[in-house]
Design brief:
single chain; alpha/beta; TIM Barrel; eight-stranded parallel beta sheet; 15% strand; globular; EC 5.3.1.1; triose-phosphate isomerase activity
Length: 253
């Protein structure tokens, strides 16, 4: 059975003390959600030490929002995967649409970052997704396939087994357009098909998260879909009650 994951991407929000308080609030009420749901929080770099300490002893994992493509050296402003692992991070988000769009991250860059993550014991949450122009041109399958083939296809089977995929409908974020649960399932099922072509049955164990404005009100409909294994949560991850409520959206069995 695939992992059920609710991962919070805090992006560039909250100050360090606020981040620690948010983590403490999530921890305080975490027992209200089934232990079968895996929670991950990904705060800004400046918060990681405090958040990891606040969550120590709980089952809530901590991830970073990015890592450097190099292991060390004269790279001013960068944070290496080794540094993140030394703090106690377990996950790292790579290939987020904002990193691709605003900072020009390419598949070549992401291959290096994936290698750094695995070399230091981090599990990548690798993001794929198409923008509005690509969706309207009917190129969404093509774009997502390329993003997977150029990076994920380079992994060994052991590395692939430690990877989480997150699909972001970039066209539905801040545009006034909404992705339906059916559209989410369609692309998630396609992603799993592409993964299966390379990795066989192992693809059936890979969690694929939905990253398009998931919130408590639409989580149950999304998570009811066969190939939607959870969410990469943005705004709703900044409120402990909303973040935990999303975790209650999985079908009860």
């Amino acid at each position: 059975m695939r992992k059920k994951i609710v991962a919070g991407n805090w992006k560039m929000n909250t100050l360090p003390a606020e981040g620690v308080e948010l983590a403490e609030n999530i921890r305080a009420d975490r027992n209200q959600v089934c232990s079968c749901v895996n929670f991950i929080v990904c705060p800004p770099f400046t918060h990681l030490g405090g958040v990891i300490e606040a969550l120590r002893g709980s089952d809530i994992e901590v991830g970073a929002q990015n890592c450097a493509a190099e292991d060390k050296g004269a790279y001013t402003g960068e944070v290496s995967a080794a540094m993140l692992a030394a703090l106690g991070c377990r996950y790292v988000i790579l290939g987020h649409s904002e990193r691709r769009q605003y900072y020009g991250e390419t598949s070549a860059t992401l291959n290096k970052k994936m290698a750094q993550a695995f070399a230091n014991g981090l599990q990548p949450i690798y993001c794929v997704g198409e923008n509005l122009e690509e969706r309207e041109a009917g190129r969404h399958f093509e774009v997502v396939k390329t993003q997977i083939e150029e990076v994920i296809y380079n992994l060994t089977p052991a590395q692939f087994a430690r990877t989480v995929i997150a699909y972001e409908p970039v066209w539905a974020i801040g545009t006034g357009k909404t992705a339906t649960a059916e559209q989410a399932q369609e692309i998630h099922a396609y992603i799993r098909t592409i993964l299966r072509e390379k990795f066989g049955a192992a693809a059936d164990e890979t969690p694929i998260l939905y990253g398009g404005s998931c919130k408590p009100s639409n989580a149950p409909e999304l998570f009811a879909k066969e190939d939607v294994d959870g969410g990469l949560i943005g705004g709703a991850a900044l409120k402990a009650a909303d973040f935990l409520a999303i975790g209650k959206g999985f079908p009860q069995k």
